[in-house]
Write a structure and sequence with these properties.
heterodimer, A: 186 residues, mainly alpha, de novo design (two linked rop proteins), 75% helix, disordered C terminus, B: 535 residues, alpha+beta, four-stranded antiparallel beta sheet, 47% helix, globular, binds zinc ion
Chain lengths: 186, 535
């Protein structure tokens, strides 16, 4: 009789381990999946930039400096590997692009050029997607890290050597962040 | 933080069960009445009869429930004739892009379609159904008149409805009980009066009235929550505030977006007094909160976000703000907050106007620049610098003194900032008679006049058919006596909307409205009386 009970507890213990292990794996896969999403969007941006540069080059004769910066920032970003250095290079590129867009505002000819406007829309959309993908990634990393640290899943994580994941650092905040309370009352 | 929707708590959808029970009770009631009339006497007292009745009612209700709620998204899309965006069109492409961005933020956990409603009205709606489909639809009119950040705000608002699950609730309610009402509206429009007396119509009418009870369970709160979520995602409270204000003054699609869909919309297509009031009863019965209240909350959020920006700027520059001088943040034409500026620095900004959004160290919300007395002196000086003559009237929009000007050989009063025009009623015929003498109708004005006419025509027909007024739109104060001006069409033949004070005999035209009126008359652009009401 006692043997059966011990066996039962043993089986339950194994089941419990499996459940926690699978939960951790799922969280880690979420993190890796969302990293791929960032990559997709970053590549999209890398692909769009040469088009934009060649389209506006003629009109921006006196802004070669700004254009050069965009091109070199892109080259660096394409070459970067690993979350840390990638984040740095991409943030540089974001800034260079922001500068270019600001400069383009001063050229009304560009605004009436449909091709330029379409490229700009695609790039704006991509910028947003990068920001959102990064946010999703960071949230999922935070989720995963918590799971690695709290009891009882921390036993399982150390037993199977789950590694922690790095955050993708955002550029310095340039847009104001409104404090929002979702449980708002009238 | 942008909203990633990881943390959106899905609501318990117990109300959907409730809707089913209400529906079943309705059918049970109808059947009981029917049989009571048909088979009087002892039969109806038998318990077996009642069991049968309950089962029959439950069955009918289930069928009705399943057919209307399972495929509700397709039904909504079909009934509004909403089309997927045309990717070759720049504006549609932007909308599609924004929806794609939304999928990135949600980790593509939920597939949301987007659609464009072919109407010049201004509204947006979201629908979701039991099969897991979801759609965000925006009218062509709204889409083409909003900037990108504004469309982002609208999409984020609707997305929160879908992801939090309250959209499923409203869609189910709308499709179960709204089917009746839109069917009734069609009958009313085709206006074959005999139908009104038929029993089927009466039954539909009773169900429709009971359907309004559903509003009891659709809380206003969800709109506030969706607004807040939209701000969290887009970080741009002013974009949403501007959109809501814009919607509140325009045609929101009453008559086109069938009633029954109201609760899916971002603003109620029919402007009602109930929606715009607070209190126990309106809170209970109305599905949309007052736009004024929503704006107030959004402007407060904008204010908070600026304080943060201010702190960031201080940290970066490493210097403490000097409190001796008032510091301002302003929203640039590129829709970005800039600052901090002193009043003197603001004066140097050529694009600063009374309608620019400004936040200073004191106020609780972001405000239009004209509300700040110090900034008003800047505008006054600019006016004086132009050497124009003040008329003693105040612009109802930007609250700046209006100046006199010559126009088509007569005298009018104009705002130097928003380009609005105030004309004494007696002078309008003169201006119209002299059209083309000084300023010919340009291609742009003609096109504008045509599209406004087209839009207002549909609106006018609806008003006649439904015998309802404009409802509650925010009214401008009269530049002379400060009483609210009446907003309506210039005349039934000239469908340009103007604001009028009957006391003072004055008419206020917003930018381009006077010119459009002239072009309408010059080119004989009259409402097409052959246009029949389409469903
Ligand atoms: Zn809403
Ligand atoms: Zn004005
Ligand atoms: Zn008056």
């Amino acid at each position: 009789m006692a043997g059966w009970i011990i066996l039962g507890i043993f089986v339950l213990g194994i089941l419990w381990l499996i459940v926690i292990y699978n939960g951790l794996i799922a969280k880690r896969n979420d993190v890796q999946g969302s990293w791929k999403q960032i990559d997709v969007q970053l590549n999209r941006r890398h692909d769009l930039i040469p088009n934009l540069v060649s389209t506006v080059k003629g009109a921006l004769e006196f802004e070669q400096d700004t254009l050069e910066k965009v091109i070199s920032a892109r080259a660096k970003a394409v070459g970067a590997t690993g979350p840390q250095s990638k984040a740095e290079a991409e943030n540089m590129l974001t800034q260079a692009l922001g500068k270019l867009f600001a400069v383009m505002e001063n050229y009304p000819d560009l605004k009436s050029n449909q091709n330029v406007m379409q490229l700009q829309e695609e790039l704006t959309s991509t910028e947003n997607r990068i920001a959102f993908a990064r946010q999703l990634y960071n949230d999922l990393v935070a989720n995963y890290r918590t799971a690695l640290q709290v009891f009882p899943s921390n036993f399982v994580s150390s037993m199977f050597n789950f590694r922690t994941e790095e955050y993708f650092e955002a550029p310095a905040e340039t847009k104001a962040v409104p404090a929002v309370n979702l449980s708002i009352r009238k | 933080m942008p909203l990633t929707f990881i943390d959106i708590e899905r609501q318990k959808n117990w109300r959907i069960v409730l809707f089913f029970l209400v529906l079943m009770a309705l059918y049970l009631l109808a059947a009981a009445l029917f049989f009571a009339a048909l088979l009087p006497g002892p039969l109806s007292a038998e318990p077996r009869f009642w069991v049968f009745l309950v089962i029959a009612a439950a069955l009918t209700a289930s069928i009705h429930f399943w057919f209307s709620a399972s495929n509700a998204v397709d039904t909504v899309v079909r009934r509004l004739n909403a089309q997927p965006p045309d990717l070759k069109d720049d504006v549609h492409r932007m909308f599609a892009n924004i929806i794609q961005e939304l999928h990135v933020v949600t980790g593509a956990k939920r597939n949301i379609r987007c659609a464009v409603i072919p109407s010049l009205s201004l509204n947006a709606l979201a629908a979701a159904d039991l099969k897991g489909n979801a759609v965000i639809a925006i009218t062509e009119g709204l889409l083409s008149r909003l900037s990108r950040p504004q469309v982002e705000a609208v999409v984020a608002h609707e997305a929160h409805h879908i992801l939090s699950g309250d959209c499923l609730e409203t869609t189910v309610a709308a499709s179960i009980f709204g089917t009746f009402s839109s069917a009734m509206e069609k009958v009313r429009y085709s206006s074959s009066n005999r139908l009104f007396a038929s029993p089927a119509f009466l039954l539909a009418w009773v169900l429709l009235q009971l359907g309004y009870l559903v509003n009891l369970f659709i809380s206003r709160e969800r709109e506030y929550r969706a607004d807040a979520a939209a701000v969290r995602m887009t970080r741009n409270p002013l974009a949403l505030a501007e959109t809501l204000h814009f919607l509140s003054r325009g045609w929101r699609g009453a008559g086109f977006i069938g009633s029954g869909f109201e609760m899916l919309c971002i603003v109620n297509p029919v402007a009602t007094t109930l929606d715009e009031t607070e209190g126990f009863l309106p809170d209970l019965l109305s599905t949309h909160p007052p736009i004024k209240k929503r704006l107030e909350i959004l402007l407060q959020m904008a204010r908070v976000s600026i304080t943060e920006l201010d702190a960031n700027a201080e940290r970066r520059s490493g210097r403490k703000g000097t409190d001796a001088q008032e510091r301002y943040f302003v929203m640039s034409p590129a829709r970005l907050w800039q600052g901090p500026f002193t009043a003197g620095e603001l004066d140097a900004l050529p694009w600063l106007s009374p309608l620019t959004w400004v936040a200073n160290g004191k106020g609780k919300t972001a405000e239009r620049a004209w509300k700040d007395p110090l900034l008003n002196t800047i505008f006054l000086r600019r006016l004086a610098g132009d050497g124009r003559i003040e008329s003693g009237f105040t612009c109802p929009v930007c609250k700046q003194p209006l100046v006199t000007a010559a126009y088509e050989g007569t005298q009018i009063v104009q705002c130097g900032f928003c380009a609005g025009t105030l004309v004494e009623n007696g002078r309008i015929p003169r201006i119209i008679a002299r059209t083309g003498r000084e300023r010919p109708c340009t291609e742009r004005l003609n096109a504008l006049a045509r599209s406004v006419l087209q839009q207002n025509q549909a609106r006018n027909i609806y008003r006649k058919v439904a015998a309802r007024g404009a409802g509650q739109v925010p009214l401008l104060p009269c530049p002379k006596c400060k009483n609210p001006m009446f907003r309506g069409f210039y005349s039934t033949a000239h469908l340009i909307e103007v604001d009028r004070c009957s006391n003072c005999g004055l008419t206020w035209f917003d930018q381009d409205e006077l010119e459009m009126l002239q072009c309408l008359i010059e080119n004989r652009l009259l409402p097409d009386i052959t246009v029949a009401v389409k469903d």
